[in-house]
Amino acid sequence: MTSLNQMPSSYDEFLLQNRKYINASFLYIILTCILTGPAIGLGIYAGIFTHTSYGACVIISVGMLILYFGCLYMYKKWPYKAYTSFLAIFVMNILLVYMSYEKINVNVTWFLMPLLSMLLLSSKIYIISCLFNYAMILLSIWLTAPYMSAMSKDETVLDYFKYEAAARTIETFIMAVVGYEIGRLISFYYRSLIEDKQKENVLLKMALTDELTKLGNRRCLDLDVAEFNNHPIPDNICVMSFDLNGLKITNDTWGHRAGDELINGAVQCILKAMERFGKLYRTGGDEFVAIIFARNFRLIEKAIIENAENWRGENNNRLALSIGVASRIDYPDASIAELQKISDEIMYKNKEEYYKENGIDRNALYNKYQEQ
Q1: How many Å apart are CA 156 and CA 181, to the nearest integer?
Q2: Tens-digit pLDDT profile for the chain (372 aa)?
Q3: CA of 165: how far to CAs of 92, 136, 179, in Å?
Q4: Gap between the Cα atoms of 87 and 93, Å rounded
Q5: Are 83 and 74 in contact (CB under 8 A)?
Q6: Ranges assigned E (strand) in 77-122
Q7: CA 215, 217, 223: angle at the middle one, nearest 5?
Q8: pTM metric for this prediction
Q9: Cα angle: 310, vertex 315, 316; to 5 degrees
């Protein structure tokens, strides 16, 4: 049977999932109802049903079997449409008329049909089902009135029909109103539940997303690493750590607009080379981490460096990245966290070499801007 375990992203999606689930459920209900014929046959054999025949049992079971294959075809072709449920409800109502005509008491079952349609959470479908059900009830009363009035001998066919029709009208009205309210409350409950879940997902996404770059943040990385630890680590996994050189100087000299351009430029250079191989996170102001699944990670690293060298912005003409790489291939016994630590160490070592090669005293530079 179709599962409803997955939380839908919207109420409209929930209605589609629910319709498919109810359509599938109707198939099981119809299969069960096929046993109605044999059950009535046992009742005839035991002397419980004395005013019907074995032929009626066969007609009921054959009718339900035909209905099952018809609904099965419609379900496979239109699983999200209400056709399957409509057909099942209407045909089962007609079979109830036939059962009433065969003197098989089905009073309680009459009210099951509209209640089943209520599960589709559609006011239109429910109202149509109630009206058709009511029409079939009146038809069954009219067909059985001659027999029932003859049994009582105290009332005419018309008197019996009017009395029973009035009683069933009151019952149908009460059932329709109560069912409508129940359906409305169920619909309100699910709508509220899904809307609350949507708000929760938005807040969770905001908590796990870097506002500037729209990448996952440090918390997102930690959650993903924790999830990786629950499964065997792939042999082709690689962790890359990045540091954007000179971001503080750019921010303090040219302003945060230039600094933001540099950050987004670094993201573009990295993602252009590795996006289809893994996921990139912004873990700090000028730091990024990528989890990559590729054995050719050195080619990816080379492409990132080339992208950075060729990058030009409106406010910056240079973008330099210090990179650290640690792979499962090079460190086969390391965990994801250990690979991340190794890549960080390599990245910081490369960052020191970058400043030395460019004649930059990081401590003096840092103190300079701290004094301003």
Answers
A1: 38
A2: 444 456 677 888 888 888 888 889 889 888 888 888 898 899 888 888 778 889 989 998 999 899 999 989 999 999 988 888 888 888 888 888 888 888 887 776 788 888 888 888 888 889 999 999 999 999 999 998 888 888 776 778 898 899 989 999 998 999 899 888 888 888 888 888 888 887 887 888 888 899 899 999 999 999 998 888 888 888 999 999 999 988 887 877 788 888 899 999 999 999 999 988 999 999 988 999 999 999 999 999 999 999 999 998 888 778 889 999 999 999 998 888 899 999 999 999 998 888 888 776 655 545 544 444
A3: 20, 11, 20
A4: 10
A5: yes
A6: none
A7: 115
A8: 0.59
A9: 35
- Indicate the burial class of 268 (C-beta count within 10 angstroms; 0-12, 13-18, 19 or more): middle
Backbone phi and psi for residue 286, each to the nearest 5 degrees, phi listed first: -120, 20
Instruction: State the Cα–Cα distance between residues 27 and 30, nearest whole angstrom.
Output: 5
Q: At which residue do the structure tokens 């870097």 appear?
A: 210
Helix (H, G, I), strand (E, B) or coil at 238: strand
| Contact present, 97 and 136 (Cβ < 8 Å) | yes
The sign of the torsion formed by the CA atoms of 293, 295, 298, 304 equals negative
Tokens of 209: 């997303």
Sorted by where each starts, the structural domains of the chain and their CATH numbers stand as 11-203 (no CATH), 218-371 (3.30.70.270)
Q: Angle at the Cα of 296 (from 294 to 297), degrees rounded to 5?
A: 75
